[in-house]
Amino acid sequence: MESVRIKTNTPRSYYADEDQTAEMFSLVDATISELEHALSAGWITSVDLVARYLRRISMYDAAGLNLSAIPILNPAVFDEAAASDARRAAGLPARPLEGIPYLVKDSIKVKGMTVASGSPAFENLVATEDAACVQVLREAGAVLLGRTNMPAMAYGGMQRGSYGRAESPYNQEYLTAAYASGSSNGSATATTANFCAFSLGSETVSSGRSPASNNSIIAYTPSKGLLPLRGVWPLYPTCDVLVPHTRTMSDLFRVLDVLAVVDKTPVGDFWNEQKIVPLPSVETIRPRLFDELKEGSALRGKRIGVPSMYIGGKDPLPDKVCTRPSVLKLWERTKDALEACGATVVEVDFPMVTTYEAKASLGELVSVKDLPEGWHSVERCQLVAHSWDDFLAANGQPGLDSLACVDPETIFPLAPGSLRGAPDAANQLRWHEMVEYPKNKPDSIFEIPNIEQAIKALENARKETFEQWMDSQGLDVVVFPANGDIGCANADVDLEASLYAWKNGVKYSNGNREIRHLGIPTVSVPMGVMEDTNMPINLTFAGKAYEDTKLLRYAYAFEEFTHYRQVPPRVPKLDSDVVRTTGNQQSSSVQAQVELPGVTITEQSKFIKDSIVYVEVKGNLQCSHDAQLKQLVCYINGELIDPRLDGNGWSLTATYPVSARDSTWSRWTSPALVQTIVVIVAHTNTGQTAGKLLSGSLSHRRSKMDVQDSHTLLYLLAYIRNESYHILNHCQNLFVQVLFLQLFQRKEWHPANGSRNR
């Protein structure tokens, strides 16, 4: 079988325009507003936008650098993009995030996809409904690309979960998140690497802030109850928050316009379900549009406190904060910038931290006045077990609708060869007790003994040790470097690296457990890149609960003045990231006047012979009398392949040496690393994009000489809807059909498929 490569009459990339005089913009670090403008102007379609992001994912995440940020792609991604493009073509008003591709953490429910939360125990758990956050994003027109990597149950940071972990796109020698708390590592890595427009993570200790800092992106951790948590796997319900990850504050505002809404059925959303302490409604906190917070002078005249312990100054606690000199150097530049914005910066103590951690050296990790005796232990067992059991019951999957169904050894196993590290003994979850808990649990989580006293104590601790202290110091906001240093990438297997990764200032984001436990809102903004490690670090803005809009104003003003974000150097711009901005406008009124084309897949196969992989896809093209095929462009794993045309038929044949990518998926690694992504783009000369394709039957052939695993499937994941394929609108007066084909090895089931019933 002949291997066909690029011919001289085929452009280097379908996406890159050969006219060097044409006006263009790049998808790399494009803002949501820029993407929306490109979609509205007809320069690009959502389908095309998805295809371009998929090429970056193919080149850098699932191959090449193997960043492993996105282990599972959404099988319906092109259906969602098609629906968005169809709305535009029909002349319907664009919704707030119309056609914008995004990602979600693996702990967030998407109907029909697995929601393993990175845990072997839940690899087969399929979401029966969307999480509240996914629901509102779907209604706003956003297009889900897939799911991001995380450690099992978000219980940690850079421990390898079922699908491995994400790696740094800045420096492969360092972690992309804090080792002890950075579970949204895939979300932040994917966002900074421009694999999506934005992503959703979550945080219980520093799981949203930490990876944001290590990846030079924005993270917002809201006050309790402001962003909906229904359908997100809980960890510690008293601490959990949803965390949007974006590359700019402006992007964050666009996302918050959609996310910051009241969930009328907040089942499993602890703070929105509880009636023990009154909380403000998000409707009374948020502005009508978050763009109203764009005030470049917001820091003028403000008094800013920076805790001495985080900038190498006085630290009264025995466990001193470890701060790298290059972090301190960035802080000095940042202080100058804040003062240039018109603020006064003063060094302060930090009683919220020193009070909370006063007895930590004695093994008492939480020191909060009036907190019930033993409450920390309850939060690490009964509270978690109750919330997990409720989550499973609400999902209602037979055989996996209770925590009692689960083998405790499979919830958080360490990957082979991994060190346990140096976690606090009192901070450990008790897996065996937890799976027994449902047998005698009360009807409601709010019936757990002493929960009312505990919630009131935590609320009072924030008010007394933080908010009243801010008033006494005359502070408008508190800022500090997001972390003192970053652990090495081998912290999971090397003892010396592990010990350093567990140091104070390195293991968590600064502020440690108390920021989330007491409910302090923060915004994390890029502060620069350390000169000795080439790793980014952020500045944290922290303020009073439910004064989130003030923090957002301050963070925007700082970002607007500094622009300290740097694009990760390991994932440079591709030719397909370039979008031409002239001569592409489409008239939706024309689209209804032309018979729409179709592409039929007639055969697909992949097999291995003599250490060579053979991939073949065949199909037919049907065009109206007004339309002619202009070009068929195909990519395999991001590399351009030349197809063969024969009248209305076409075939794609490619060969390449067998590699680890063609092996069977094994736990602790991303399933994407053993997938082959094929993108086929058909152009006609009329610019109309709709049509029907029948799903081709699976074909797998094995040579007698083949000793490889023969359980290979070819999945057509793009444009699939009820066994048919739909061609979507493309902007450049061309018909476009993008068929996203996933070929992967499997035995009984492969987690990359996203669900067991697909």
Summary keywords:
758 residues; alpha+beta; 19 helices; 25 strands
Structural account:
- With 758 residues, this protein is an alpha+beta fold.
- It has two domains: 240 residues, no CATH class; 339 residues, Amidase signature (AS) domain (Amidase signature (AS) enzymes, Alpha-Beta Complex).
- It contains 19 helices and 25 strands.
- The strands form five sheets. An eleven-stranded mixed sheet has the order 2-4-3-5-7-6-11-12-10-8-9, with helices on both faces. The chain has a five-stranded antiparallel sheet with strand order 17-16-20-25-22, covered by helices on one side.
- The protein is globular.
- The two termini are 31 Å apart.
Number of domains: 2
How much of the sequence lies in strands comes to 15-25%
Please count the helical segments.
19
Query: In the CATH hierarchy, what is the superfamily of the largest domain?
Result: Amidase signature (AS) domain
Instruction: Give the helix/strand class.
Output: alpha+beta
Helix fraction? Answer: 10-25%
Which fold name corresponds to the CATH topology of the largest domain? Answer: Amidase signature (AS) enzymes
Main beta sheet, described? 11 strands, mixed
Strand order of the largest sheet: 2-4-3-5-7-6-11-12-10-8-9
CATH class of the largest domain: Alpha Beta
CATH architectural name of the largest domain: Alpha-Beta Complex
Q: Give start-end ranges of low-pLDDT stretches.
A: 1-12, 14-18, 586-597, 687-758
Shape: globular
Distance between the termini: 31 Å
Mean pLDDT over the full residue set: 85
Find the count of extended strands (DSSP E, 2+ residues): 25
Rounded to the nearest angstrom, the radius of gyration is 26 Å
